[in-house]
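Archive entry. Fields below.
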Amino acid sequence: MISARDVHKSFGSLEVLKGVDLTVATGEVVCVIGASGSGKSTFLRCLNGLERANSGEILIGDISLMARETDINKLRQRVGMVFQHFNLFNHLSALDNITLGPIRLKSVPKAQAESDARKLMALVGLDDRADAMPRMLSGGQKQRVAIARALAMKPEAMLFDEPTSALDPEMVREVLDVIRNVARNGMTMVIVTHEMGFAREIADRVAFMHAGMIHEIGPPRPDLRSAPRKADAGFSLKNFVGTAR
Ligand code: ADP
Ligand code: MG
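PREDICTED_STRUCTURE:
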C-alpha cells in the first residue's frame, strides 16, 4: 500500500531524512517511534506529499509520489492525515469540518456527505456534538473530529502524527480507543507515537527512527515494557523505552 525507498529530504543545508525505507502492507499498522527531531513528522509529510522529498521513491498503491505527472492533490485524498494539533477549521462546526472535504474535493452531494459524517461522528463517539464549534470541544473531542474528518475522505491509508501528544492525560485513552477501532476495521496505518504500550498492542511492526533513518523495524516484543535497558545494544527498541520525551 505504501512503499518508501531511500527517501532523502533536506531543508537548506540540514539533511533531515537520510535514506528512509519503509513498506507498509494493506491493512498493516506500523508505529514509528524515535526522539524529537529525528525526522518522524517530515517523513509522514513526505508520505502524503505535504513535503516533497528530494530523492528516493514513494509509492502509494502503484502510483509514484515522486513522478512529475502525478497529481499530488488527488493522491493525497487517498491518504488521510491526523496531526498533533488537530488542525480543525475553527469557524466550522464539527459536522462541517467533516463534510467539507467530501463536498469540495469529491463532489459528494451535501445530504449524502452529512449522513456519512453523522455515521462517522457516531463511530468516534460524538454523535451528539455535530453542531458544536471546535472551541466548545475538549482536545480529545477535537482529535476525534479530526479522525472522523480524515475518514470521511474514504482514504486507503491513514497517517497519524503524535495524535495524543497535545492532549491532557485523561483524554489520551478516548483517542487511542478510536484509533484502535479504526485499526480493527482493517485500515492501513502509520502512527508516530510516544505511547509505547499502545504501540506494542496495536502495531504489526514498530519502526525506530533515529537521525533521519529507520534503524530497526520489527514486531513489538511482548517483553518490551519490562525489559531491562542495555547500555551497549546500539539502536535497539529496548534502549529507546522511556527516552522518548
Ligand atoms: P520529529 O517529528 O521526529 O520531531 P521533524 O521531522 O519535525 O522531527 O524535524 C526533524 C528536523 O527537521 C528538525 O531539526 C527540525 O527542526 C527540522 N525541520 C522540520 N521541518 C522543517 C522546515 N519546514 N524547515 C526547516 N527545518 C525543518
Ligand atoms: Mg514530529
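CURATOR_NOTE: Residues 11, 14, 16, 34, 36-42 surround adenosine-5'-diphosphate (ligand 1) (CB under 6 Å).
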